[in-house]
């Protein structure tokens, strides 16, 4: 039987609008589950709430109501230090804005999770991984001197070396050329074969069509769950929503 690793139950998210009015609800009662080894994509128009959902379900931004369990733990009930350790050991993130440390070289950014977890840094393994993802820059360069696509590769490499059990990715290949995008998707796919669960927000229908399950969002509501999605089924679902 498949092991459930994500359980999101009826979550809502309200935010203060300009500090004046009553809070605005931007996620309305979303429930979803995912298993170990499953590749989930979240699609929908701009402003549908995809990043808000990803942040709420990954333990980064507490929902206003509802519950989130990751690997059986409610991340919002952990003390700050426990939550930080849980994230460091079990959860990987690829953020839309990369979330790298500009004052550190690319290499140090990549191995930071390993150093924080007091794990050995295998330089050859990191070098092989960088070669695999076509990282052409010098890893001793500060990330602030890298292009957007190179920074995105550093953020991806950081997750790939960290051995997380769940990876949350917000537009992980948005800044990449099509060859790099294919390579990185292939590497993420390979991780799911090893039992890692990946949840990816994307505008790329072709890539979403290569995941195991796609969730369509619109106006903060979950519209459809499409198992083994095809590009046609996704285009149709997104167009139907627009009517
Ligand atoms: N802190 C906030 N305060 C006010 N409004 C917010 C806040 N965070 C998000 N929103 C609004 O909630 C809606 C959903 O935003 P979100 O970034 O989750 O959408 P998205 O589907 O990820 O969009 P995109 O595809 O453009 O990245 C948007 O209308 C956004 O303006």
From TrEMBL:
Q: Does the keyword NADP apply?
A: no
Write down the Gene3D superfamilies for this protein, in alphabetical order.
P-loop containing nucleotide triphosphate hydrolases
Task: Name one molecular function that GO assigns to this entry.
Answer: ATP binding
Q: Where would I find the ABC transporter domain in this sequence?
A: 6-238
Give the CDD domains listed for this entry.
ABC_MJ0796_LolCDE_FtsE
- Tell me the keywords, alphabetical order: ATP-binding, Nucleotide-binding, Transport
One Pfam match? ABC_tran
Xref: InterPro entries: AAA+_ATPase, ABC_transporter-like_ATP-bd, ABC_transporter-like_CS, ABC_transpr_LolD-like, MacB-like_ATP-bd, P-loop_NTPase
Q: What is this protein called?
A: ABC transporter ATP-binding protein
Source organism (scientific name): Lentilactobacillus fungorum
């Amino acid at each position: 039987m498949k092991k459930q690793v994500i359980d999101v139950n009826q979550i809502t998210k309200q935010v203060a609008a300009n500090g004046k009015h009553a809070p605005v609800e931007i996620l309305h009662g979303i429930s979803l589950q995912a298993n170990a080894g499953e590749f989930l994509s979240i699609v929908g128009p701009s402003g549908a709430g995809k990043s808000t959902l990803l942040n709420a379900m990954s333990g980064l931004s507490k929902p206003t109501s509802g519950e989130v369990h990751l690997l059986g733990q409610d991340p919002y009930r952990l003390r700050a230090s426990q939550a930080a350790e849980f994230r460091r050991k079990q959860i990987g993130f690829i953020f839309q804005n990369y979330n790298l440390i500009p004052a550190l070289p690319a290499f140090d950014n990549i191995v930071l999770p390993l150093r924080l977890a007091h794990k050995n840094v295998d330089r050859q393994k990191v070098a092989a991984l960088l070669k695999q993802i076509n990282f052409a820059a010098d890893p001793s360069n500060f990330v602030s001197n890298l292009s957007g696509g190179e920074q995105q590769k550093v953020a991806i490499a950081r997750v790939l070396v960290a051995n997380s059990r769940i990876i949350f990715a917000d537009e992980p290949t948005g800044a990449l050329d099509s060859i790099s995008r294919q390579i990185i998707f292939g590497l993420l796919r390979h991780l799911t074969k090893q039992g890692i669960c990946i949840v990816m927000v994307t505008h790329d229908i072709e890539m979403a069509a290569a995941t195991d399950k796609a969730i369509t969002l619109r106006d903060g509501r979950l519209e459809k769950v499409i198992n083994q999605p095809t590009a046609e089924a996704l285009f149709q679902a997104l167009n139907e929503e627009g009517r």
